[in-house]
Amino acid sequence: MNNTDKFSGKADLYAKARPNYPSQLIDYLIERLSITNDTVIADVGSGTGKLSVEFLKHGCKVFCVEPNKDMRNAAERMLSEYSGFTSVNGTDADTTLADNSVNIVTVAQAFHWFDVDRFKAECKRILKQKGAVAVIYNHRTVGSDLVAENAEICKRFCLCFKGFSNKLNADAIAKIAFLFDYRYETVRFENNLTYSKELFVQRMLSASYAPTENASQYGEYVTALENLFDKYSNDNILTLPNETIAYIG
User: Fold this and answer.
1) Which of 35, 85, 92, 168 could be 30's S-S partner, Cβ–Cβ 3.0 to 4.6 Å?
2) Is residue 232 part of a domain?
3) pTM, 2 dp
4) Helix (H) or strand (E) holding 187
């Protein structure tokens, strides 16, 4: 299965259970990057539009560049009411957008799938002069017993699991640094997540590495997640320690 197909069949779960981004981050980006309703943004790997919608609400024109058909269709259903929304069947290496056509490129929860050399070249091609790029991740807080036990469950039942968000290890940070020619800023915002049992299970099933319903380990995986919820929840609510990190350059 190639990267484009990893989320096929998971768009509805993704839209329902994946976290949003904190208002403090959006406010910071709007001020830091001088975003107005004239700003043109390419949200590459936009998925169901979790980040895109925040800029559409602000009146921006947003090209939602997403190669997966299921995710793209979900975004089209949810974001079509916004006049600034344009759905684009494109990739990190070929957004199909015109040269020098956007002010800002954003990437949320997707950079680890990218070919960083080709994406860097594509950013240089489509960005206007003095354009900016923001790479954003929701990231589980390291050191939490809940997060550690959650990871052990994923290691046991998810054959492709390589760590949460697959992401902010030394290799990922090195790729981010290369993207920005080693000149970038990092900002962090607390963004703890709360879930009901149903929503927590759905969140975990929305991951690219999660077994599908017809997989032999699916039932055991769901049971283990439900038991984890019961262990750590209070008043039927689970709080997952999380922060949102943005790399801007």
Assistant:
1) 35
2) no
3) 0.84
4) strand 185-190
Sheet hosting strand 102-108, strand order edge to edge = 85-88, 61-65, 40-44, 102-108, 127-140, 242-248, 185-190
Q: Which helix (H) or strand (E) segment is 198 a member of?
A: helix 197-205
Query: Residue 67's closest CA among 93, 91, 32, 84?
Result: 91
Do the domain assignments include residue 119?
Answer: yes
Position 108: which residue type? A
Please name the residue that has the structure tokens 């895109």: 52
Whether 106 contacts 63, CB under 8 Å = no
What is the number of structural domains in the chain?
1
Residue owning tokens 């069947």: 89
Instruction: Record the tokens describing residue 137, joined without a space.
Output: 């991740």
In-domain check, residue 88? yes
For the stretch 68-119, pLDDT in tens is 999 899 999 999 999 999 999 999 999 999 999 999 999 998 998 899 999 9
User: For residue 188, is it within any domain?
Assistant: yes
CB 30 within 8 A of CB 56: no
Q: Which residues form the domain of 128?
A: 3-141+163-193+241-248
The encoded tokens of residue 147 equal 């997060």
Q: Answer yes or no: are the C-beta atoms of 204 and 210 closer than 8 Å.
A: yes
Q: Per-residue confidence at 1, pLDDT binned at 50, 70, 90?
A: very low
CA angle 186, 128, 44 (to 5 degrees): 60
Burial class (CB in 10 A: 0-12, 13-18, 19+), 99: exposed
State the residue for tokens 């039927």: 236
